[in-house]
Amino acid sequence: MNLRNVIERIRDSQFLVPTAGIVFSVGLVAVAHNLDRSSYAPSLLIGSSPDSARTLLATIAGSIITVAALVFSFTAVTVQMAATQYSPRIVQQVLRDRFQQWTVALVMGTFTFALVSLATVDAPGQSTNSPNWTVTIGVLLGVASAVSIVGFIDHVTRHVRIDDTIRRISMRVRDGLAAADDVPLEDDEPWQLPESADSTCLRSAETGFVQEIDIRDLVEDLPAGSLARLDVWTGQFVAEGSRILTAWSDEPMPDHIRSRIAIGETRTVEQDPGLGIRQLVDVALRALSPGINDPATAADVVRHLAVGLRAAHLAPAPTRSFAAANGARLFTPHAPTTADYVADSLGQIRQAALDQPVVLRAMVEAIDALADELVDEGRDHSALRHEGEAAAGRLEELLQAMTRVERQPGLSSDPTG
Asked: Does the pTM of the predicted model rise above 0.70?
């Protein structure tokens, strides 16, 4: 398992952060127990006898575990709502919510502290030391857990709102598309792959999604004077044994080249902005489905998609050809272009919204505003213009059809007529 897979597993894990909170609370019990046995006792500590300390810690442990059930219920409801109402692909964003993970860690850590402290507090008559530190820390953790639960409820209610969800995804798409990789190996010289020469295929040893491609190290690891074609791109699903690289070379391909293409179980918006676009499109298509019929949400998605498409058009054009100092060259035909992003987003939504003037109007307005800026920047926006013309044409047809219906004899736009 490569480092990228390990990082993604940690980010998706609902186990690591809460477990860290539990381990920390066990260490905190030892610290509090040693402080109780020392002579250092500030006046701000809560005075308590061993008997009252046991009662208080038992109350904290019992109440916190009940509150923990509430946290888990909210988490389950949030995941279910995101999967059913928006898209199953949005579940990843919910699972990676750090506020949620740290709330669970605090609640479970407080429960563990109270539970373990019950076993360390001396019984009445066995010691003259008062468990003031243990009680004070337990009370502070209990109050902090109560505050975090209130904050968690507020966070969840805002986190599941569709407007907030769309905005978060669009911002991640914008940041991902605007981030240009620093690969100073671009080769502008035109060249073609040989057709008759013998080729060597590099095949995947894993099944999953392409998470990251180290272009710089990959092209530098190619044999001198070789030509290679990268047959996959970030975000693409590959099965074990699938072709990921084709090379034309007289020398064998190094085995470690395969490690330059990281394959894992999940996709991330940070490495694959196309995933964020797919999530937004899923929300729009779900909103346009007959079961939900919410064109206003689809129109909001279109407006937020313009944010990511703007970043894609203003970013440097994707590099197709790379060259190393040893004469090796790499061709990447599957790198997505702005036209691909436009077709995968606005194109799919337009096809699903052929009878929704609200969505078509939002699309025309968003494209016109974006195209106006791109003209001033001198950027190619032919794909956007094509989608805008198609949406405007369909919108005009719908408006004309509505006008003909209103003008039919016996029909009136006045509901009282």
From this structure: yes
